[in-house]
Amino acid sequence: MVKKRVPDWLNSSLWSASPSVTSDDCRRYDSKPSTPTPPSPVGPPLPVPPPVVVVVQEQSPKSEPKESVDDVHDASSNSSAEDISRQAQFLAELSKKVINLRELRTLASQGIPDVAGIRSTVWKLLLGYLPSDRGHWSSELAKKRSQYKHFKEELLMNPSEITRRLGTSTSSDEESKLEGSGMLSRSEITHGEHPLSLGKTSVWNQFFQRGLFGNVHGMSGTKIVGLMKDTEIIEQIDRDVKRTHPDMNFFSGDTPFAKANQEALRNILIVFAKLNPGIRYVQGMNEILAPLFYVFKNDPDEENAASAEPDTFFCFVELLSGFRDNFCQQLDNSVVGIRSTITRLSQLLKEHDGELWRHLEVTTKVNPQFYAFRWITLLLTQEFNFADSLQIWDTLLSDPEGPQETLLRVCCAMLILVRRRLLAGDFTSNLKLLQNYPSTNIGHLLYVANKLRVQSSTG
């Protein structure tokens, strides 16, 4: 059997070159700022075809090339000019009455400037949250934000509020109008409705002991339909939210700013779990939610920033719709489940680099599930620093085929970028390398991923 030849571009010394310095981008996301307010955004590097680099020997993935002051100044000036030009392109497209989504996707696939709220607006457009017609933006946003407020009122209420609404539903319209504020006075709270009551019929006792949050979405007459046992889920959400990016003051810490952001993440995840009983909450969803909320909350438009929670919720739902089957345990072994997705990644690697595939899966027996499960389910948010994750997401969201196929190509490109180390490694060293992926140039990574698309279409 004739061995499939590895494409020449795969063997380029470029892919074993040491990564470029990430400087301000890395510091912006990896270190804690002195104040709870996030620093001003900096545009990410662009995934343009890299120059030819001659490397005699593979360097450590963590090493950084030395540069002279003049080199850094020249590179900074060129980068600044490119950033300004790209900002102008995006702003020109976003200012049109009807936005050309095809053109916007082309621009976004090369990286989105993280200034002037451009990334926030573009992500909302790419995820279908904003319509292409700018004239409909105001009404659509008002409708969606109101709908989310309604979800919160119905799905995040405590037992006393549930009891109050039940009483309201059985009273006459005349009595309802006389309630005024709608809150029960102390004299109207019965023993069974008191938060400290230990009675078996106490709604609060049921709330604490059995986790019965009321889903009053289908409330009719004197009954509450759809009560769920979800104490464990909410406890898991609380734990995960507190662990979200502990190195960033935006998400972590005791400041009112961080706590408000944590509360927003918690609300979104609980509402999502209640509206999607087939999936509910799967550990790690908080990591997918975090980039969306961060980008929307840092929109310089005050109204948009204040509405980051509802905007994030709907974009989160839309994003997960493309990966829904990966989170459904009943589908794990089906043709659409996570195991099938991992198999497709394996096949993609075999197609483009049979030698590397054979060494990993046959010779060293590194099962792709050992490393790719986290890569795929968390959309690479745990493999790179926060700034790099946002740049990768620009490409994922801009693909008209959907983020799933692009994600698999990026994962395959990650393997190709470290192929020399993998081919020289055994089971233990390769597994350690892939579970702790080294720092890399994201522009190079996305370039290789795009090459895989071209190779597939022409092959």
Key terms:
globular, single chain, two-stranded antiparallel sheet, 459 residues, 21 helices, 2 strands
Overall description:
The chain has 459 residues and is mostly helical. The chain contains 21 helices and 2 strands. It has helices spanning 23-30, 69-94, 101-108, 118-126, 137-155, 159-170, 173-177, 203-210, 231-242, 256-275, 285-297, 302-306, 308-321, 338-352, 354-363, 369-377, 386-398, 403-417, 419-424, 427-435, 442-458, and strands at residues 212-213, 228-229. It has a two-stranded antiparallel ribbon with strand order 1-2. Helix 3 runs antiparallel to helix 17 (386-398) and helix 14 (338-352) packs across helix 16. The longest helix is centred in the first third of the chain and has 26 residues, at 69-94. It is globular, with a radius of gyration of 25 Å. Residues 11-77, 169-197 and 206-228 have low confidence and may be disordered.
| CA gyration radius, whole angstroms | 25 Å
State the major sheet.
2 strands, antiparallel
Number of strands: 2
| Strand arrangement, major sheet | 1-2
Distance between the termini: 19 Å
Mean pLDDT: 76
